[in-house]
């Protein structure tokens, strides 16, 4: 098995079960046009998020890390018409591109894009007494993943599903002597998850069009 096979199989699954329409294709194109990194979830991962949203009948979704709103659009399409996605992005350029993509997708009423640091917005949502979310997708900067998760718990209810992307980092999490702050951040996060009695959690390794990685999946007890 090699990366080429993983990519071909990802394409096969995508064509079968996660075909992109022009809105999603243009969202990916908009990243190149705006000189932004191609670090969105893949189409098959977008569909995976939709399946998870359906499984917990999610209406209220929180996302940390919007980029161009590719994952946001997948998720907003999987919740009922009266549902809401709050998505948080701290880079104003990314937020501007995301906002255009959300409008083109006809989802401006369902998606509330908050521009600011994830930590600040999480604390704001908590202090404003925001209703708990049914589903939380953490996909922003990696060093504070543990703190994001702890704050996300305060915005959850029993049954809330919390998915955190990029927690395996091509296996670099096995390196105890790493100096990479992103790897150290997810190592600390994975350790916290293992000992957290508030959730039932595991980590799924992910292969496909993007590099080898993994997603932590937790359900609040
Ligand atoms: C991996 S990308 C998100 C990809 C997106 N979820 C998708 O799949 O389409 C991470 C994003 O998080 C943003 N980000 C990084 N640090 C952040 C922070 N402290 N607060 C909010 N957003 C942050 C980055 O600017 C970037 O746009």
Q: Please, could you describe this protein's structure?
A:
α2 runs antiparallel to α5, α3 runs parallel beside α4 and α6 packs parallel to α7. With 221 residues, the protein is α/β, with parallel strands linked by helices. β4, α7 and β5 form a beta-alpha-beta unit. 43% of the residues lie in helices and 22% in strands. The chain has a single domain, classed as Vaccinia Virus protein VP39 (Rossmann fold), CATH 3.40.50.150. Strands 3-2-1-4-5-7-6 form a 7-stranded mixed β-sheet, sandwiched between helices. It holds the Pfam family Methyltransf_3. Keywords: Methyltransferase, S-adenosyl-L-methionine, Transferase. This is O-methyltransferase.
Please render the helix and strand layout as text.
Blueprint: H1 3-17, H2 22-33, H3 43-55, E1 60-64, H4 70-76, E2 84-89, H5 92-104, E3 111-115, H6 118-127, E4 133-138, H7 145-154, E5 156-165, H8 181-194, E6 199-206, E7 213-220
Parallel strand pairs: 1-2, 1-4, 2-3, 4-5
Antiparallel strand pairs: 5-7, 6-7
The structure holds S-adenosylmethionine.
The site of S-adenosylmethionine has 18 residues, from α4 and β2.
């Amino acid at each position: 098995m090699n990366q080429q096979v993983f990519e071909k199989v990802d394409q096969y699954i995508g064509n079968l079960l996660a075909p992109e329409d022009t809105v999603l294709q243009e969202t990916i194109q908009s990243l190149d046009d705006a000189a932004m990194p191609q670090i969105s979830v893949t189409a098959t991962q977008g569909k995976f998020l939709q399946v998870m949203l359906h499984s917990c009948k999610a209406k209220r979704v929180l996302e940390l890390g919007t980029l161009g709103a590719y994952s946001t659009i997948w998720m907003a399409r999987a919740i009922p018409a009266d549902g809401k996605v709050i998505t948080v992005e701290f880079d104003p350029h990314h937020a501007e591109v995301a906002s255009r993509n959300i409008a083109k997708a006809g989802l401006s009423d369902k998606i509330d894009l908050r521009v600011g640091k994830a930590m600040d917005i999480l604390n704001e949502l908590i202090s404003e007494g925001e209703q708990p979310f049914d589903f939380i997708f953490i996909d922003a900067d990696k060093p504070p993943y543990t703190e994001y998760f702890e704050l996300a718990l305060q915005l959850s209810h029993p049954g809330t599903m919390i998915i955190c992307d990029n927690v395996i980092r091509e296996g670099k999490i096995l390196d105890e002597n790493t100096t990479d702050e992103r790897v150290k951040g997810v190592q600390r996060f994975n350790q916290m998850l293992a000992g957290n009695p508030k959730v039932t959690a595991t980590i799924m390794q992910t292969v496909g069009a993007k590099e080898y990685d993994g997603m932590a999946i937790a359900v609040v007890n």
